[in-house]
Amino acid sequence: CRTGSVSSRAVQPAWVPFGSTVAQRRRLRFALDVYDSTWSSRLHQPSYSLGELINLEASVSTDPRLPLRVFVDECVASPGATARLKYRVIADNG
């Protein structure tokens, strides 16, 4: 027995915040961490030059029964949130 609607159309993103679509009580915790060149330790105040390799880890913490993956389409570096100067760190859908 199926419930809901079934169609052959491709799924289209709705851009609704995930937390509101799963459950009101659950909270998702996102993290973006920077690691050293060996991926063995996290760097707390990293500083990089333009063109230098950066080891980034994006993660989300949630209920183990609801496994999620994080896909990073774009990431920019800038001196501040409102700065016009921006450098693309990740582009073209990762």
Provide structural commentary.
This protein has 94 residues and is mainly beta. The protein has a domain of 65 residues: Zona pellucida, ZP-C domain (Immunoglobulin-like), CATH 2.60.40.4100. It has 1 helix and 5 strands. The strands form 2 sheets. A 3-stranded antiparallel beta sheet has the order 2-1-3, with no helix packed on it. Strands 4-5 form a two-stranded antiparallel sheet. A hairpin with a 6-residue loop joins β1 and β2. It is globular. The termini are far apart. The N terminus is likely disordered. One of its GO terms (molecular function) is acrosin binding. This is ZP3 protein.
- Taken in chain order, the helices and strands follow as HEEEEE
Within the largest sheet, what's the order of strands? 2-1-3
CATH topology of the domain at 26-90: Immunoglobulin-like
Q: Kindly state the percentage of residues in helix.
A: under 10%
Radius of gyration: 18 Å
**Describe the biggest sheet?**
3 strands, antiparallel
Contiguous runs where pLDDT drops below 50 for at least 5 residues: 1-8
Q: Name the average pLDDT.
A: 75
Structural class, judged by helices and strands? mainly beta
Distance between the termini: 39 Å
How large a portion of the residues is in β-strands, by DSSP E? 15-25%
Number of helices: 1
- CATH homolog superfamily of the domain at 26-90: Zona pellucida, ZP-C domain
The dominant shape is globular
The CATH architecture classification of the domain at 26-90 is Sandwich
Which CATH top level class of the domain at 26-90 fits? Mainly Beta
Number of strands: 5
